[in-house]
Design brief:
By secondary structure, the protein is α/β, with parallel strands linked by helices. An eight-stranded parallel barrel has the order 3-4-5-8-9-10-11-12, surrounded by five helices. Helix 1 crosses helix 2, helix 4 packs parallel to helix 5 and helix 5 crosses helix 6. The protein is globular and about 50 Å long. About 45% of the residues are buried. The chain binds NADP nicotinamide-adenine-dinucleotide phosphate. InterPro entries: AKR, AKR_Detox_Biosynth, NAD(P)_OxRdtase_dom_sf, NADP_OxRdtase_dom. This is Aldo/keto reductase.
């Protein structure tokens, strides 16, 4: 397992993260086995959100692992807030953030979060309020570090103008079948759709600012449209290329799909969403596979993208 120093902080994290969005599909025993497998494989970073299973996933996580201070100290715990699923709107107001964190801490049975992310941008955001909430959370010791998810560079700059807390994470969807954050950079100045910059060069911005990118839904295509791995009907060339490389490196296709992300020199972390211990073991083998430049671009092209 490869470990990274997250954005020049004291946090030393595995480059593979266990995501907990789906663990409420499991029994408590199943969830415990999944978490223990992740830890045995060297994963020390666990991603949550207050909305996963409407709080059930955070609760199950701490109950399944029988949270205590010994286990807590071995983990980097991150959660997110800002989506009000009951009313179907975004809320980054001070009170909403503060209340959400209290709920998260009580469900995870911990006194502090290592990192709190703002889950999605709220166009009604008042950054002064976010800054106040962050200060209170930091002063009280409830949150050590802060970051965002699904934010573009200008939205990050806006928040950063008001808060002294450095935003250290931006969680974005990224995988071999969802390549938005690299597309426009590869096809600069071309008269094709791929060169259209949807997200304000967010990859290059995060690298410039030492913001660690975390790739969510690494094996999905579209917005939860399904898993591309093994889908020979929609992604024949991509799967064939990945399978060939899996054979070459003596690993599974899951490891190669993971390695395609970890190979990027931006030190992107991969957030696994599987509920199967065996897939965690497979994916962790992709933590540090030295895919060549040619192999990396071959996968990119096999997914239907142009390398001009
Ligand atoms: N910031 C955000 O907006 C955001 C949004 C979504 C998710 N997230 C985070 O990202 C994490 C991962 O998201 P995700 O669960 O969508 O990621 P994912 O790992 O791409 O997808 C997991 C799903 O794919 C299936 N799967 C995984 N590997 C497979 C394979 N080799 N063959 C066939 N099926 C496979 C899993 O089934 P099995 O369980 O049967 O393996 C599971 O249903 C979440 O847990 C959450 O922490 C963040």
């Amino acid at each position: 397992m490869k470990y990274l120093n997250i954005s020049n902080t004291e946090l030393k994290s595995s480059n593979i993260i266990m995501g907990n969005m789906r663990i409420n599909e499991l029994s408590l025993d199943g969830a415990e086995k999944l978490i223990r497998t992740a830890m045995d494989e060297g994963i020390n970073f666990f991603d949550h959100a207050d909305i996963y299973g409407s709080g059930e996933c955070e609760e199950m996580f701490s109950t399944a692992i029988k949270m205590n201070s010994d286990i807590r100290e071995k983990m980097i715990l991150q959660s997110k807030c800002g989506i009000n699923t009951k009313g179907n709107y975004y809320d980054l107001s001070k009170d909403y953030i503060l209340n959400s964190v209290d709920g998260i801490l009580s469900r995870l049975k911990t006194d502090y979060l290592d990192i709190l992310l703002l889950h999605r941008p709220d166009t009604l955001v008042e950054p002064e309020e976010v800054a106040e909430a962050f200060s209170k959370l930091k002063e009280s010791g409830k949150v050590k570090h802060f970051g965002v998810s699904n934010h573009n560079p200008a939205q990050i700059e806006l928040l950063q103008k008001y808060t002294d807390e450095k935003l250290i994470i931006n969680q974005l969807q990224f995988g071999a079948a969802h390549t938005n954050i690299v597309d426009s950079g590869i096809a600069v100045n071309m008269d094709i759709n791929q060169s259209f910059d949807r997200d304000g060069s967010v990859l290059e911005y995060c690298r410039l600012k030492d913001i660690t990118i975390q790739a969510w839904s690494p094996f999905q295509h579209g917005f939860f449209d399904g898993v591309f791995l093994g889908d020979m009907e929609k992604f024949p060339e991509l799967n064939q290329t990945i399978n060939e490389l899996a054979e070459k490196y003596g690993v599974t296709s899951t490891a190669i799909a993971t390695a395609w992300i970890t190979r990027h020199p931006a030190n992107i972390q991969v957030i696994l969403g599987t509920t199967k211990p065996s897939r965690i073991i497979d994916a962790c083998k992709g933590s540090d596979i030295p895919l060549t430049r040619q192999e990396w671009y071959k996968i990119y092209k096999a997914a239907g993208n142009m390398v001009p």
